[in-house]
Amino acid sequence: xxxxxxxxxxxxxxxxxxxxxxxxxxxxxxxxxxxxxxxxxxxxxxxxxxxxxxxxxxxxxxxxxxxxxxxxxxxxxxxxxxxxxxxxxxxxxxxxxxxxxxxxxxxxxxxxxxxxxxxx
Length: 120
Fold this sequence. Notes:
This protein is an all-alpha fold. Helices cover about 80% and strands about 0% of the residues. The chain is elongated, with a radius of gyration of 37 Å.
C-alpha cells in the first residue's frame, strides 16, 4: 500500500512540475535528445552496445542450456539410483525386518539393563 501511495505521489509531483515547465521546455529537451541521438559517435556506440548485448545473450543462452542439460542428466541419474534402491530394498527388508514378535530374525538383542551398573 505504501508503494502505491509513493508511486501516485511521484506521478503527481512529476505532472505538476512538468506542467509548470510548460511546452517550450518540453520541446527544448526533446530537441536536445534528438541532437544526441543523431550524433555519429552516439550512433556508433549504440551499435557496439547492441552487438555486445547480442553476444552476451548468446553466451548466456548457451551456458544456461548446458547447465539445464547437466541438471537434467544429474536428475535422471538420481531417479535411476532411487528406482534401483527401491527395487532392491524389498528383497533386503525381508531378510532384516523384525518379525511379528518384535525380534530381529536370527536372535534377539541382549538387554543392558539390570547388569549392575549404577551410572545413569
